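Pair request: fold both.
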Amino acid sequence: MTDELEAAPRNRLHWLFVIAILTGSFLLFLVQPMVARMALPKLGGAPAVWNSAMLVYQALLLGGYAYAHWLGRVPPRMQAWIHLGVLAVAALWLPIGMMRMDLPADAEPAIWVPWLLGASIGPLFFAISAQAPLLQRWYSVATGGRDPYALYAASNIGSFGGLIAYPLLVEPGLALNGQSWLWTGGYVLVFLLIAGCATMLPRNAKGTPHVPHESEAPTRGRVLHWIMLAFVPSGLMLATTTFLTTDIVAVPMLWVLPLGLYLLSFSVAFSDDRTIPDLLAKFAPVTILLFGATMIAGHQKLAYLNALIGLLLLFVVSVACHARMYQLRPAPDRLTGFYLAMSVGGALGGVFSGLLAPIIFDWTYEYPLLILAAGALVPQAFLLPAIGRLWAGTAQETRIKFLASALVVVLIVWIGITNPGDMLGEMHEQLAFMAVAVVGLIATGRRAAYMVALAGALFLFGGYRSIQMSLADARTRSYFGVYTVSDYRDERTLAHGTTVHGIQLKGDRSRQPTTYYVAGSGVGQAILAAPELYGPNARIGVVGLGSGTLACYAQPGQSWRFYEIDPAMVSIARDSGKFTFVPQCLPDVPIIIGDARLRLAQAPAGGLDLLALDAFSSDAVPMHLLTREALATYGRALSANGLLLVHISNRFMALAPIVAAAARDGGWHSAQLSYVPDQEFVAQSTRDGKTAVEQQDMDAGSASEWIALSRDRATLDRLIRRGGGWRKMKPYPGFTPWTDDYASVLPVMRVLHPSLQND
């Protein structure tokens, strides 16, 4: 009976710490997308902005973990008073939000973004980030030395909950002001929970400055091992996200899945039940060998299957590495140092994949490199006793067997690539990969031989083709993704990941607009109508340069300018010589680099007659360019009878209801055109007072959706009367416009709303 009475308080104490850690981690992962939404209209979507923001988050997280580690030098009760004081001081920044400050027009993101984010949320993020390692240490002290590491599972379940809750519940259900107050309420709850945990600490406990650590300090090699075991899953999580959206399929909110699986891997790896982590760790080398090479091949016909394989590979590698960290964990009195090393490794992985790789590589080479690193780190054991006996022998015999296996792999890879005498037929790469995989399975348990087989498989099944393309200078990479230029007999194409963004025909048709921009498309018709609507000196602006196709609609006397956020795209379209739309048709056109909404806000009012917004032709939507406030910015930049063209072609989202709602709310008149390339279109335009007929080659056209908006009804009616398929936009009951305070993609995702499939 006495034991049961003692067990009840222990259970209550355990659950108090679990709930406190879970709630704090939930808030930590809720605040990052929330602040991103708050900052987007103010800072724009340029990569320098979000790279700086990422560094701020990593620095604050590292600072929080270092602070928790430092607190271990003082008695537990003193730790509690200090931390509650830090939480109370940070509460002065509530309710959470961006500080009211207008950035200079020429603001340098590397300076202003850290200042703005640090001044807006820095103390709150710092204080919350320290609670997970700190409370685990307190738990060990309060329970007389019980192992606290299982509580880290609760921390990552909370992180996963915050990650999922924001796009699925918080963002669709609350405006930013409501989200801010929700987070503020959560912060107050965390403060109370931590205060409750503090009352559980004994007045005299080990860990004071007068009581040294009882356990042996980890060696530098052990700390470096911890860092590497954290580095690989963190880097692979970001690399998987980039690789899936670049070479497999670009699906909205796909980033949630890799990050979610990464967080869940901690919960599995740090759980008391070792069945699942031990099983996944055992088969991790096989999974890496078979699935890693399959992913590098990147076959588009099996895009969704490959995406599933990539996510499974990430989860297995993450569990195996984190489970190994758990096996190598120190005693509880060294806990905060262990988590600090883990945080350093995670931050370095993020910096490598998120910041350095886009600068160093022209393709997602970080992905196969991290797969190789995973193969070198995960535990290995022979798959069968017979294989172990095969590798048994003296050191000299083992070296001979290793060299023999390496030579076999090299020979198989050479045959698979060159296929001499067509000896393996059309399936030469696949057959060679199967042979290399067999060698790799036999080598599992002997790390050096296994690594040779893994490297051979990656090189054979896609790696060598990527290297060839890099050597041919066919690819360019920036923080926005990988651009690939491909040459065919009659045309040259520009692809951004898996999405074609431009086609230029060769020979005497090199000036002919193609793809989404043919004469029959919405933007083609509108630009051809510009002389009729605005006279020979029409002022035309385009958001999104692409390959520069629209430049060849320019006519003498017109004034044009482009807005492009990615300098790499400017280099491809204008400077590289790979595409000649701009050099041939508008060699001196101004190209304004930066976030278009911010740049248009700085432009003179009424300076454009026609503005084409082409930031939505891929499957990622910069939401801040479609809000009510954004349309007001475009309206200010346009003349009183100006015309706004919005490209809304998208495989996954129906953007017409959002644009229609924003148009209705902002006093715009709207029309929509759905272009299909199986019908000829003849457009009339005026050049030098003469009527010319432009007939588009249908072979170069792509289906596209365009919306035309104008605050002058007569201008829009004149465009519609020219023919070509324009129709007044239908109403979409129940849809509200996106605003800077509220926006969610869930109501417009086609898979969730079948009624929007044709919109």
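--- second member of the pair ---
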Amino acid sequence: MRQRTPRISSRTTRRRVVGSLAAALLCAAGLAAPAAGAETAGAKLPEAAGAKPPGATGAKLPGNLALTPPMGFNNWNSTHCRAEFDESMVKGIADIFVEKGLKDAGYQYVNLDDCWALPDRDANGKLVPDPKRFPNGIKAVADYVHSKGLKLGIYTSAGTKTCSDIGFPGALGHEVSDARQFADWGVDYLKYDNCNNQGVDAKKRYIAMRDALRATGRPIVYSICEWGENKPWEWAADVGHLWRTTGDISDNWSSMLSIMKQNLPLAEHAGPGHWNDPDMLEVGNGGMTDTEYRTHFSMWSIMAAPLLIGSDLRKATPETFEIIGNKEVIAVDQDPLGKQGEVLSSEDGRWVVAKEMKDGSRAVALFNETGTAQSIATSAQAVGLPDADGYTLRDLWKHKSYNTAGKIAATVPAHGTVLLRVAADGKWAKNPPAVELGLSGDPLVEAGKSAKLTSKVTNLGRTPARKVSTSFTGPSGWRIEAASPSTASSLRTDQTLSTSWSVTAPQGTAPGAYDLTLRTTYRSPAGTRADSVLPLTAHVVVAPPAGNSAVSDLPWMSTVNGWGPVEKDTSNGESAAGDGNPLTIGGVVHAKGLGVHAASAVEYYTGASCERFTAQVGVDDEKDPKGSVTFEIWADGKKAASTGVLTNADAAQGISADVTGAQVVRLVVTDAGDGRDSDHADWAEPVLSC
């Protein structure tokens, strides 16, 4: 699969003529909403001071647009070109924006993606809306959206055709005429894609549309969607209001994580009126957990990214609305200072990202990339706050405030994010102290056997935590018992209550993941009751049998995969389960193994009973010769072996690692640092010797 082309199956041939290796990438997102105070629909553009006449090459962008990252909706990820994308849907989304409070939360643009037009222009060279989808035309839709106090966005491509395999007309060579049509219809936002660009210089193509939009006299937010191929963050600040920094996002953890990592280093290029765009939100589309979707929304907000809903709100769950409607998190994204958060640390997948806010506070994201709960910490000084006796620490997902003496820390669930707002505001003393609740030891449980774990409650506050009590619960039938005191009358600043626990799953419990909950309650000096809850995952595991075992015959603990599911004894195939082919590397077929797609990780419980892992590895033959990956073997969090970069041109390479004493072996495939295009990888003939 070409990870850069998730709009259609990678088996479908696309029409595009572009010269770079990344040309297969296409754009699935990018629509948004204007800042408070932005010009309203229908207003005329004032001439920017010192700007050249409208339409002249080099004309600057209009002012007062996208002063904060645009917020809105785009239909592509939820509908693609299916018949359900039509006038009724668009109007329904506008209604939901108003009815569900999303408009009040800041969402403003309702945007049409590809497939809104007929495949051919009319006799005068004009674009023609599809009469089945939009029987009343685009202007009627715009009028309806405007009547709700919202704005309308539209899509085309800076090429001869759009990105759909149907081949709708692009705007290359038609910039002035198309921009005029958009303005006459009342369009407020244009997403301009990069497909079928005929190899014409990107800057020239995007500047041409910028000048055409400006010449219309209508304020239109301009979203450059050239996939980051030509580093638009270096040249587009006076060309577009936002620019895509990456390929398309997909609705899975691996894709979201990869895109986030590409966008985070670009903080210096973002600011009011010119934003880094890591693509639309996938929240609510079903490919990630709610914990992962909260991370997605948190990290996009701290990156000052456009917040562009990509799920069908007509079918959205209450949990989806709770995530995308969190006004405290949205306020981080929409802060008028316009800073993108910067990475302070990321060691071993424990990320600290801090964003300066206009009021002097700091938004701080403690993000856990790993598959187990992790303690992540920083300090008020490290995030740029002045020295103070105490600080107010606001948890933006719990909607609760605490005080801290200066340490900012939390034990963060796997793939989770704790998003905080920290201030030296002099009001800290009225809040209860913050505590960090954590767990030492891996919750790996063999049915019928006791596992030993230790919980810790540490007071981070300037004031004492009193009447501290910790509880630990699990599924019905599990036995969880404290083996040491689980209460304390008081904890001073930095003092810790440690409790040993015995955790036993009933005999016969099936292997798999089970939810545990660690909770502590306490009181502030004024008697205010507070609590902290840490959701955990226990894995009921079975040690592999003695001797040599084909890994694909063993149960895994967890998997992460860049495209579709991990497959046993076949290649990765496409996005559906069971759609792989025979494992084939360099023309050689292998009967046993794992088919994966970068970025990937597969974990196995070895219970300290195995000595060695071996495999033949390489890029599977099923895709175009663009795949490039590395293979890594990890034993209890330490890298035990790795390959160099392997491509489709390489024969299978042997890899072997000493895993003696390891409880968990993790098989990792990376994208080799060049993106995930066609990175179908095989762990062929993988064997654990135990």
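Observation on the second member. The mean pLDDT is 91.
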